[in-house]
Write a sequence for this structure.
């Protein structure tokens, strides 16, 4: 639509100007020839005209992206060095989130200010910067108050994310675009990951023969898949900071209480019942504090344990 409007405006300014594409040519092949030709010129400047689909809505988004720059260079015109460092810390926690949740609570995002080197920033300043990240489309904040990567980040920082987090970076099995919200096959060691809208296409195409995993062929009858993204997080699951190649860091008791309160508040806003025994959880946290490990009993109460090291999520 934007391309067609530009053509119309150009024609009004100079009717004699020869245009390489006419409206019927652009519509006929969906603009593929136009994109291919323009990218041949953009490649000289390490740029690419690229598209991606919004994971939540399925809407197609277009942008001119830099194929060489990393996250720091991408954000350099909008943020200072400390703010960029903070952005990268938040992105790291999002990418390393347990159980392929690809999201973190606000308390975890604010806790990252303690990892900043140099000047640093206050938590109040961090809240302001986080709001700016959301407003400018780099990250998104859900109704539950959790931060995840926005479509802009997945599109413009795709190369950075793939190179920096090769073990955590997941591609949709059907459309081959980055996926941080969708479904995954339950079969052990199966790498199938699909966006919700791609999964819906697979289900519709299967019809009476039954839905099967496009990778391993296992039955997906009765939605026999597990969620990835925020839906993979239980209401009372607390976030533990993870560093690449290292074990989980036990959260401080006050951090757990803040996350618990945050989850309860979000649940009441969405009419969700989060049945958590706070006194039991606090006493359990006190018992763990300083030991660095969780007992088997505590793991069974909190849900299945997750691997602590980077790269162990998928094989």
């Amino acid at each position: 639509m934007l391309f067609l409007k530009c053509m119309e405006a150009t024609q009004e300014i100079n009717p004699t100007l020869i245009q390489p594409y006419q409206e019927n040519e652009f519509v006929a092949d969906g603009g593929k020839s136009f994109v291919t030709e323009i990218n041949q010129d953009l490649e000289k400047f390490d740029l690419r005209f690229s598209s991606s689909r919004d994971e939540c809505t399925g809407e197609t988004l277009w942008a001119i992206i830099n194929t060489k720059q990393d996250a720091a260079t991408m954000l350099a015109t909008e943020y200072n060095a400390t703010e960029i460092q903070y952005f990268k810390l938040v992105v790291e926690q999002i990418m390393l989130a347990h159980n392929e949740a690809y999201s973190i609570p606000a308390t975890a995002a604010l806790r990252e200010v303690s990892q900043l080197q140099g000047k640093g920033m206050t938590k109040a300043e961090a809240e302001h910067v986080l709001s700016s990240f959301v407003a400018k489309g780099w990250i998104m904040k859900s109704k539950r108050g959790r931060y995840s990567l926005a479509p802009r980040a997945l599109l413009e920082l795709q190369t950075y994310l793939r190179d920096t987090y090769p073990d955590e970076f997941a591609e949709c099995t059907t459309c081959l675009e980055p996926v941080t919200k969708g479904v995954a096959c339950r079969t052990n060691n199966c790498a199938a990951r699909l966006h919700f809208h791609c999964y819906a296409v697979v289900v519709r195409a299967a019809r009476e023969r039954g839905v099967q995993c496009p990778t391993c062929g296992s039955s997906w009858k009765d939605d026999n898949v597990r969620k990835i993204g925020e839906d993979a997080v239980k209401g009372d699951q607390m976030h533990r900071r993870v560093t690449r190649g290292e074990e989980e860091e036990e959260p401080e008791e006050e951090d757990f209480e803040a996350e618990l309160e945050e989850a309860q508040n979000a649940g009441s806003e969405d009419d969700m019942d989060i049945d958590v025994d706070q006194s039991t959880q606090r006493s359990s946290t006190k018992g763990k504090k300083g030991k660095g490990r969780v007992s088997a009993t505590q793991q069974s109460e909190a849900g299945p344990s997750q691997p602590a090291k980077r790269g162990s999520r998928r094989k």
Strands lie at 47-53, 60-66, 104-105, 139-141, 146-149, 182-185, 193-195, 225-228. The chain has 13 helices and eight strands.
